[in-house]
Specification:
Radius of gyration: 16 Å
GO biological process, one term: negative regulation of DNA-templated transcription initiation
CATH class: Alpha Beta
Largest sheet: 6 strands, antiparallel
Number of helices: 5
Order of helices and strands: EEHEEHHEEHEEH
GO molecular function: DNA-binding transcription factor activity; transcription cis-regulatory region binding
Main location: cytoplasm
Subunit structure: Forms oligomers.
Mean pLDDT: 90
Strand order of the largest sheet: 1-7-8-4-3-5
Helix content: 40-55%
Structural class: alpha+beta
Keywords: Cytoplasm, DNA-binding, Repeat, Transcription, Transcription regulation
CATH superfamily: Transcriptional regulator MraZ domain
CATH topology: Chemotaxis protein chec
Strand content: 25-35%
Number of strands: 8
CATH architecture: 3-Layer(aba) Sandwich
Low-confidence stretches: none
Shape: globular
């Protein structure tokens, strides 16, 4: 399970060093990850093991038309990358453009159960501010889980 929020530096080639707690989990599931376009200028990242589970769920739960839409609009846009020997992952170029990187070349990596998200730090802060009211409204139920 992925959890936590990490500030990561992106180099000129679009690579970032995966924080060690995340890296250990990814390496246990294989050396590759799958990137997808996410909501609100973010990217989703799945380990290859988790991505296979998504594909299996799609195969078993979607009808033929839904499956074609899933393949054409989700799977066709996916990009893969391997974790290199120094623990870096390259964000595929066409997907990197979806998360505008500021001059400081930093991203926020957020662990979300079985996947992760990449955000521009400014966009992440704006998203959290917009979601604050919903969090407040649901706070009692959320805290009961703890």
């Amino acid at each position: 399970m992925f959890a936590g929020e990490y500030l990561c530096k992106v180099d000129e080639k679009g690579r970032f060093i995966v924080p060690s707690p995340i890296r250990e989990q990814l390496e246990a599931d294989g050396q590759a990850v799958v990137f997808l376009k996410g909501p609100e200028q973010s990217l989703l990242i799945y380990s290859t093991k988790e991505w296979e589970k998504v594909l299996d769920r799609a195969r078993t739960s979607l009808d033929e038309d839904q499956s074609r839409l899933f393949m054409h609009h989700i799977v066709s846009e996916a990009g893969t990358s391997d974790i290199d020997k120094t623990g870096r992952i390259l964000i595929p170029g066409r997907l990197r453009k979806l998360v505008p990187v500021d001059e400081d070349q930093e991203i926020i990596l957020v662990g979300l159960y079985h996947r992760m998200e990449i955000w521009n730090p400014s966009e992440w802060r704006r998203y959290l501010a917009r979601a604050e009211d919903r969090y407040e409204q649901n706070m009692a139920k959320i805290l009961n889980l703890l």
